[in-house]
Design a protein that fits this description.
Blueprint (H helix, E strand, L loop, with lengths): L22 E3 L5 E5 L9 E2 L6 E2 L4 E4 L8 E2 L4 E10 L5 E9 L22 H10 L12 H4 L10 E5 L9 H8 L1 H15 L4 E6 L3 H11 L5 E6 L8 H9 L14 E5 H13 L5 E7 L7 E6 L4 H7 L7 E6 L6 E2 L13 E6 H4 L12 H5 L6 H9 L3 H6 L10 H5 L6 H22 L1
Parallel strand pairs: 1-14, 9-10, 9-12, 10-11, 13-17
Antiparallel strand pairs: 2-8, 3-5, 4-7, 5-6, 7-8, 13-14, 15-16, 15-17
Helix pairs in contact: 1-4, 3-5, 4-5, 4-7, 11-14
């Protein structure tokens, strides 16, 4: 019987239009803008200046704190300026702008396709390498990986759980990565196991990707302790708490860290990046990005350099369709609508979803009919209708008591609402305000 989480969930149509398209190297842009804040935590601090010449893979910004990540150049050329640019969230953020000149890589990077299975580094050396190479979680949250690999002493790691669910509609970057780089992913998983000093790992993949499951099973047969777990199709299967429960049958308590269950969760893209960092000495300066949509002429999966303008990737798929209603960074459930197409790709850019006007149109909101579908859909067992009402009326103390900070912002509630209520909009507003109140309170202590 296929495994899945037990509370809530919805079944949006997959629309995996680009699943059959192999990964193609995107053209190197003429200019890149590399954001300094591509991760959860403090933005990185630039260590280059205007006029400096840089190579591919060269560190250009160092971590700005414990929860931060290094940034490396994705191109070779000259730093033209350090200035602000609009990011995927619509905010003006600092970035390093580089004019591209050729494609000269650091000589220390192993560019061969030879698979390197054996890792000779100690757990401490692995963590140091992951830190140096700027690895972050590539499932969306972009949490610095070295922080996850150093859990608080109170928690004892028992296993590594790898997220290959890719439950977000339209996106296929992880699917193609599992198909085309299964051996590297499995080695990356073994490195994560060594880092955490555990002898068991699970790779969870939804059963709409039988080819990826087969590829991973074949790659893992020579490694002890790595199990491929087929999962039932259900959104949001890729959430950390949902994935842990589906695979290990352990629940993450309200406000608790996922590691409290003994499970370290990483995305398949992160496992691949760890392999490249540790075995190939390659920093995280490029990633697979899906560009897709029902009206897109040639949906595809691109290995794109960080900082590439999104417009360039759209052009590579035949250009922006005439009936475009919305351009989303990510997928339609948890992605963010873009304000323009000059937004640069970042480490967390998993895809660009172009919705036509019909699919992008929101239905007219109507009064809540008390059907409780949003409650049934919530994978965290919350009451979305209530939290939305409390946020609308600025009752933030009550919102905190209703555990709004446990919300995943997955959008399952809004997806299932027959009255077209903007539930997630209000909940996101409330979550931001309650989070600010909690931070202010902790600062005063």
């Amino acid at each position: 019987m296929l495994k899945t989480f037990s509370i809530g969930g919805v079944h949006p149509h997959g629309n995996k239009l680009s699943a059959g398209q192999p990964i193609v190297k995107a053209a190197i842009p003429a200019k890149v803008a590399i954001l300094l804040g591509q991760h959860i935590g403090a933005p990185a601090k630039p260590i280059v200046n205007k006029g400096d010449t840089v190579k591919v893979g060269q560190k250009i910004a160092e971590p700005g704190g414990f929860v931060s990540a290094a940034i490396h150049s994705s191109v070779s050329g000259k730093v033209s300026k350090i200035d602000n640019i609009i990011d995927a969230s619509g905010y003006s953020k600092p970035a390093i702008f580089i004019d591209v000149e050729g494609d000269e890589w650091l000589e220390s990077i192993d560019r061969s396709d030879t698979l390197v299975k054996e890792c000779t580094l100690t757990p401490e050396e692995i963590n140091k390498k992951v830190t140096e190479m700027g690895i972050v979680g590539l499932g969306g949250a972009c949490f610095p990986t070295q922080v996850k690999l150093s859990p608080p002493p109170a928690f004892k790691p028992e296993c590594v759980v790898i997220n290959g669910a890719e439950c977000e509609p339209y996106l296929t970057a992880d699917h193609r990565l599992m198909l085309e780089h299964a051996p590297e992913i499995v080695v990356g998983v073994s490195i994560l196991m060594k880092s955490m000093r555990v002898n068991k790992a699970y790779i969870g993949v939804e059963n709409n990707k039988p080819d990826a499951i087969a590829a991973l099973e074949n790659a893992a047969k020579d490694f002890s302790g790595i199990e491929i777990v087929p999962l039932k199709m259900k959104y949001p299967q890729g959430g950390e708490k949902q994935l842990i429960q589906a695979i290990t049958n352990k629940y993450v308590g309200s406000g608790a860290l996922p590691i409290s269950t003994g499970a370290l969760v990483q995305n398949v893209g992160t496992a691949f990046a760890v392999y490249e960092a540790v075995q190939k000495n390659k920093p995280l300066f490029e990633r697979v990005v899906t560009v897709t949509g029902k009206s897109v002429k040639q949906p595809g999966n691109f290995l794109a350099r960080i900082g590439t303008p999104i417009q360039q990737l759209i052009d590579a798929c035949g250009g922006l369709p005439e009936d475009t209603g919305k351009i989303i960074s990510g997928g339609p459930m948890m992605g963010k609508a873009l304000v323009n197409t000059e937004v640069p790709t970042a480490k967390g850019t998993s895809g660009i979803t172009i919705l036509n006007k019909k699919d992008a149109m929101r239905g007219e909101p109507m009064p809540c009919i008390r059907c409780a579908k949003c409650v049934s859909a919530c994978p965290m067992g919350l009451e979305p209708y209530l939290m939305a009402q409390l946020a609308e009326h600025a009752e933030f103390e009550r919102l905190e008591k209703e555990d709004i900070m446990d919300c995943l912002s997955c959008g399952a509630c809004q997806f299932t609402c027959p009255a077209n209520r903007p539930l997630l909009d209000y909940i996101s507003l409330g979550k931001a305000r309650v989070g600010a109140i909690i931070r202010a309170r902790s600062t005063k202590k």
